[in-house]
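Response to reviewer comment R2.3. The reviewers asked that we include at least one raw input/output pair. We reproduce the pair for PTS system, EI component, phosphoenolpyruvate-protein kinase here without editing.
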Amino acid sequence: MNIFDFFKQNTTTKVQLNAPHGVHLRPSAMIANIAKGHNGKVLIELGSTKIDAKDMNKILALGLKNGDEVTFIASGKNANFVIDKIVSFLSTLTNENIDDTQSVSNRVFDFEGKKIKGDIISSGLGIGKPYFWQNDNHSVTTKQTFDNAYKKTLDKLSSMDDNDIFVAQKALLESLPKTSLEEFESAIKSAISSLRGSEHEAKIADYKDLLNSVNSNMNGAKNAQFPKDDFIVIADELLPSDIVKLVNSSAKGAVVKNLSPRSHVALLLRSHKIPAISVSEDIENYNDVIIVDATSGLLVVKPSEDDLVRAKEEIEKNNKDNLVEFENRFESATTKNGKAIKVQANIADVQSAKEALMSGCDGIGLLRSEFLFQEQKPSLDEQCKAYSEIFELFDEVTVRTLDIGGDKSLPYIKLDDEQNPFLGIRGVRLLKTHKDIIGEQLLAILKASRKKELKVMFPMVATTDEFIEAKELAIEIAKEHELSLENVSFGIMVEVPSVLFLLEEFNKVVDFYSIGTNDLTQYLFAIDRTHKTLKIDPHSDALFDALSLIVKKSSKPVSICGELASDEEVINRLIDIGIDTLSVPSKMVPSIKSRIRNV
Ligand code: PEP
Ligand code: MG
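Raw output as returned:
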């Protein structure tokens, strides 16, 4: 490329699609992601239709098929880069293996009932009676002061810490005034009014959720009362916490007015596999069963008998596919060309360990020990008991020492206020300020390990000296208490970019590496992982190049335990790079194993 290409203002490229499975959900999301990374416009033209390539739903609605002639048009600086990236991504679809249960089918039932068109938010099909979301049929519990109500909301969000959305809400809550309800409310109202009409309008729901939660804690918390029978929730607006309530109800689908596919509510609907569409019109108060077809973006009201039979058959088929994944969860995950991949689970406490046991995981790849005791400092015996209970359950457990600092805190570990907590005392750096607590934790872990294979992992390590100091502390403690280290290995989380350039040195001292892609991405791009406006492309080439480099340069086993390990879109890329161990949330184990079997 010469300098003139670099500054070219407009690029148009026509390609004939060689994508046997068409451009379904995952490729649409990928294309939209690539386009969103470009500052100028990116358009896709098919025949006489031209759409914005940054809008995944519009790409899906184009229904691009194998053999279609498609034109990509980009404007602005480096327009050729974004087109090259999309075209090179499209070339990967030639040999694409798709897991049919995950993709959006191009099939559109010719339903006989009245159809209302909507945009797909979360794919799937659901049948049930409409339930019009209201806030008045709720039971009420005790009233609280503002301080308590604020704290209750904070505690609730902390307990949902395994979900990025609630981690972000917690950070948002902590950034708001804690002095009085008036100040809290006025800060939220001004944030909402400045977000209106902006690119980040979807964040308004998070602010409203926080205000609702604190308000309802003060006025008496409201517990939603849902119908017992299958229902489709119809709402003008849903908030992230509403989805958590719906998850344990008989909700079979959701229809929400003007819901952004990028909103947290949309992400939660997808992660909980609740079929959902967004509509732009008001929905009348129907009494009878309706169908949400979120594979073709339709709400079917007054469906015929035939419509119901066909929709039920389709739902049963989907359930069967999910069941097959679930039934095969204890089988190993081997790619089509015979490469075995270990799928481990990320856990946080004894309860999640028990759940992981039933998930089919091949051991525990990450025990986030900071969530074992969240209220008050546990005694040595209490810690030892919890670790023993967890170690009992699995042949292999990787336990991470306390990773406090940055976005994680514990009431009994007081850290000084810092200008940049993500760059301050965090993870293994606690040895500088709280050596006793880490020492006691190491003692509890080593006592509980008995003869079990155990991996001890230090987070946030940036230099070999930090690792050596931490490991020496463990050796000293083992000696002092006459504990054997025979079955214990020591490794690090790869989260700080300096490690990439020190791998030759680390190879000499560590036993294993586990890549924390959440933090590695944050530090590679210098963007706070909880930042509410700045977003990072989770599939950026920079991150994948970093992963390749780690695998190439390390002489010790490498696994991934960050979010990326459970991203079905990139499993094949991770395996291509040479990763053979993934550690994922336990509820994802069956589907990740199934995805690997199709690579
Ligand atoms: C990570 O950073 O990817 C990771 C797994 O650690 P945590 O998300 O707990 O910081
Ligand atoms: Mg981390």
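DSSP finds 20 helices and 23 strands in the chain. The longest strand covers residues 125-132. Further pairs are available on request from the corresponding author.
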